[in-house]
Each structure stands twice: as structure tokens, then as C-alpha cells.
Amino acid sequence: MNPVTRPDRAPRPADRVDVSLLPAAGDQPGRVARVAGRIVGCVRVRRYGADTGEFGLLASDPAYRGVGVGRELVRFAERTCRADGLRVMRLDVLVPRHRPDPGKQSLFAWYGRMGYRLARTRTLEQAYPELVPLLAVPAELVSYRKDLAP
Fold it and tell me: Is the pTM of this model over 0.90?
């Protein structure tokens, strides 16, 4: 086992997941999740519009999946946006266009259980044409939304 990326012991659902602020990188501070002091996940949260917040770059250590790391990071993002008076949360997921991705389908189902609903699907050419030459395969941008009303 690699001690940098794997826990010293198996994670337990009872382990407390703490979300805290990392030092700012550029103009966007990063948020991380820790379990027993170890960084096990991260998320970026930002204002997207007048009443909309956005989270992205959500990631968790595979060894800690299923213990609430992602859920706590999403809840943190939602609380942050509510505290800023935002009423809607959104997120975008990049998906290969011609290749089924079981991991993405599982992720979409998880977002659905968290209350996120499909808002729209666009090709990357429509959304961000300048990024198309940087990708290895054609992709779509799948957008989800959730009302943040209490």
C-alpha cells in the first residue's frame, strides 16, 4: 500500500468528515475534506451568476468512498452558497460523447439522490469551443441544477 494515497486503516462510516479551507490558489480558495486529519477529498465552490452558485472539481480518495466525503463536500458547497444568498446550485460534468462511461452513470445517479436534476446537455463545441482541441475524444457537457431553498 502506498502510504500517501491509502489509509492506515479501513475507513468507517462513523469517521468524522471535516471540510476546511486551503490557502487560496489564485483567486479561488480550495476546500478539502479530512478524515482523521488526512486529506481525502476536495471541491471548488464559486458564484456563477446573480442567484446561482457552482461547485466543481469534486474528487475523493477511492479508499474513502462510501463514508460521506463527497456528500459532505457537496453539503459544504450548498451551505456556502446559501450563506451568500444564492438560490440555485449548478454543476457541469464532461462526458465522452461516443463511449458509455459506467462511472459517470453512477455519478449521475448519486447527484440525483442528492437532489440534482438534469438541466441540459450540450456539446463541448457549443459550450466551450476553445477547449475542443485539447480533448482526446469528442465530449458533451452535462449540466445539473438544484434549488437551494430551505
Answer: no
d(CA 80, CA 49): 15
DSSP 122: E
Scanning 25-134, the segments in alpha helix (DSSP H) are 69-83, 102-113, 124-127
| C-alpha dihedral sign at 81, 144, 96, 75 | positive
pLDDT tens string 27-40: 555 688 888 778 88
Biggest alpha carbon–alpha carbon distance for the chain: 46
Question: Selecting from 3.30.565.10, 3.40.630.30, 3.30.470.20, 3.40.50.920, what CATH number does the domain 1-86 have?
Answer: 3.40.630.30
Query: Which positions ≥6 away from 25 have C-beta within 8 Å?
Result: none
